[in-house]
Amino acid sequence: EASASVQNKPQGVNKMFTKDEIQAIDKFIEDYCIINGLTRKQICERVWSNERKKDDFWDLLHKVLPYRTRASVYKHVRRSYHVFENRGKWTSEDDQELARLAAEKDGQWKLIGEILGRMPEDCRDRWRNYVKCGKNRAQNKWTTEEEEKLRTVIESMIALQTEAGTELSQEPGINWTTVSEEMGGVRSRIQCRYKWNKLLRREALAKALSMKYDDRIWLLNKLQEIGEEPRTDEDWNKVASLHEKNYWTGKDMNLCYEKMRASIKDYKKKDMKDIC
């Protein structure tokens, strides 16, 4: 019954769970608790138990969203149904304690999480995204020199992986912890990742804005022909593959459409047919 709320498999499965998917999971767990007489606390303990249970809880849960990997469903549920009291803001004292534990118990995030009463993933992410760089972490605007250094570091990393025959995808092909270290530890891994994505978008936007009038008309006509607005990167790549020049990427077309749409008054109140 829970899976009925997700009518069809999305054309492109995003990393983020949709509202319908979250509701379907919550519905399943609610029903599971009623059938088995479990409280919220007990189901959270079941989710986080390391014992190999003989029940089919995870098998049944995965059937709610069968197109999702079991690992992604497992990770999502553990983040939503956890046994940890602290999921809120980190104080300076919390950061200091985390730094101490990270130095003493290198990489033992499960143990560190138990000591701090927080999710292991939260401790790991807080450490590598904020605390690791310590006082060296710069928070001011990136300089041109920093941007060029970031570009050099990442392009060198990509080149090495290409030479080694490693198939690269933007993530996790780029090791952001290594990038941060190559930047001298003055920018955290999350700062490096956000800046790189911003640089890529800046370049893609510049290319998209250079799209000639004929290509823009082609794009609008093609979207009208398709009848619905592409929602995922995969959808936009399919649109781009239909263009005879084979020059524009899905990202280019997406950005160009966004800019054209934004130039229309009250565009948020209009559907795609009115815009095209």
From TrEMBL:
Residues 82-135, 173-204 form the HTH myb-type domain. Keywords: DNA-binding, Nucleus, Repeat. One of its GO terms (biological process) is DNA-templated transcription termination. Its main location: nucleus. Pfam families: Myb_DNA-bind_6, Reb1_MybAD. SUPFAM superfamilies: Homeodomain-like. The lineage of its organism: Eukaryota, Fungi, Dikarya, Ascomycota, Saccharomycotina. Residues 86-131, 134-200 form the Myb-like domain. Transmembrane segments: none annotated. It is found in: Nucleus. This is Homeodomain-like protein. InterPro entries: DMTF1_DNA-bind_reg, Homeodomain-like_sf, Myb_dom, REB1_MybAD, SANT/Myb. GO terms for molecular function: DNA-binding transcription factor activity; transcription cis-regulatory region binding. It comes from Cyberlindnera jadinii (strain ATCC 18201 / CBS 1600 / BCRC 20928 / JCM 3617 / NBRC 0987 / NRRL Y-1542) (Torula yeast). One of its GO terms (cellular component) is nuclear lumen. The keyword Nucleus applies.
